[in-house]
Amino acid sequence: CETGPANQPVFIVGNPRSGSTLLASLFDRSDIFACGPETGFFRPPATSLKAALENWPLSAADMVCALELHGERVHDLYGIDRESVLDHLRGSPPSVRAMLESLTAVYADRHGKRRWVEKTPNHLAALGTIRAEFPNAVIVEITRHPVASAVGMCRLPWATPSAVANAYLLNDVHWASERFLATDHSTMRVRYEDLVTDPAGTLATLFEALGEAFDPAVLTTTGNPELIAAAETWKHDSLGAVDPAIGERWRAQVRSGQAAAISVICDGYLRAKGYEPIEEPAAVISAYPLHWDTASEEWEALEELSLRGVVIAPPADRIPPPPDCDHVASGR
C-alpha cells in the first residue's frame, strides 16, 4: 500500500460546535483536498464493519448505502449511486478502507483532487478503529473553548437548550478520547481560536505538516454547499469567509454562572488543551457526579443551579490528562 501524501487520508474530529465544518470547508476549497459531508462511517460497532466484508462486495455496498445523515442517504449527499459504490468495491480487495473510500476517494477523484478528507466530529469515539484501519492517516483534532462549544450546542436538534447540561457531553467525550489524542503521533491539533484570528498562518502550518503547500487564495473563495446536509442550517456560516467576530458571538449568549459551571465540568479538557476557566463557581457539589445521559434529562435543574452559582461536578474517577505532546500543530 502506498504511504506517501497522495494516499494519506485526513480525518477531522472534534467536539460539537468546535469549528470542524469550517476547517473541513477550508480544506475542500483547496485544489488538493476534497471533503464531502459527514459520513458517520465509524458510528456502527466495529463488528458490523467486519461483517460487511464477508459477502464482498454486496454486503459492503449495503452498509455504505445505508449510512444516513439527518434523514438523507450519505451516498446521495456525495452524489454517488449504489452502482458506483459497487464498481469501486469490485476493484478493491475486501477491506474497511475500501468501503469508506467508495465514498471519499471516489468523491475526490470526481472533483479532481489528489487527497480526501473525512470530517465527522463524533468519530472521536472511534479513534482506535480509525488508526487500525488507516495506519497512515493523519487525524486532525480541532479544539475550542468548551464554554463556546457548549453554548453553540444549544442550536443542535439533539442537544439540550442548556449550555451547562451540554458541557457534560463535552467532558465525557474528552475522557473517552484524550489518551489516544495525546499519545498518537499522527495526530495534530488546531485551535479554533487560532483558525479564525489567523487563518492564513494556521492553515499554512497545517498544510506544511501534511506535506502540502498552502495557497492563500483558499481564503477568498466560498465553501461548497455539498459539504452540509439540507437540515444542517446551523452550519451555513462555515461556508463563507472566515470572520473572527462569528467566533466571539457566544460571549453575548452565555449567562452569569454558566461559564463558571462549564469550566468546572470541563476542567480536564481545559487543562489538556491549554484553555483557562472563564469564571469560578460559588459552590461545587461532588456527591452526585453526573454523566451526559443524566444531565441531558435534568438540564432545567442544572441550569437553575448554575444561575445560583452551584455546579454538580462530573465523575471524579478519571485519570489525570497527559501533558501536551510535541506532535501538536498550531497556527500560533
Task: Describe the 3D structure.
With 332 residues, this protein is α/β, with parallel strands linked by helices. The chain is 39% helix and 10% strand. The chain contains 16 helices and nine strands. The chain has helices spanning 20-28, 46-51, 58-66, 74-77, 82-90, 96-101, 104-110, 127-133, 146-152, 163-183, 192-197, 199-209, 258-265, 267-273, 292-295, 299-307, and strands at 10-14, 33-35, 68-69, 72-73, 115-119, 138-143, 187-191, 283-285, 310-312. The strands form three sheets. Strands 2-5-1-6-7 form a five-stranded parallel β-sheet, sandwiched between helices. A two-stranded antiparallel sheet has the order 3-4. Strands 8-9 form a two-stranded parallel sheet. A hairpin with a 2-residue loop joins β3 (68-69) and β4. The radius of gyration is 20 Å and the shape is globular.
* Helix segment tally: 16
In quaternary terms, these chains amount to single chain
Q: Overall 3D geometry?
A: globular
Distance between the termini: 35 Å
Coarse structural class: alpha/beta
SS elements, strand count: 9
Query: Which strand order spans the largest sheet, edge to edge or round the barrel?
Result: 2-5-1-6-7
- What is the alpha-carbon Rg in Å? 20 Å
Proportion of strand residues: 5-15%
Main β-sheet: number of strands, strand sense, barrel status? 5 strands, parallel
Low-confidence stretches: 319-332
What letter string, H or E per element, gives the SSE order? EHEHHEEHHHHEHEHHEHHHHEHHE
Q: What helical percentage do the residues reach?
A: 25-40%
Q: Taking all residues together, what is the mean pLDDT?
A: 91
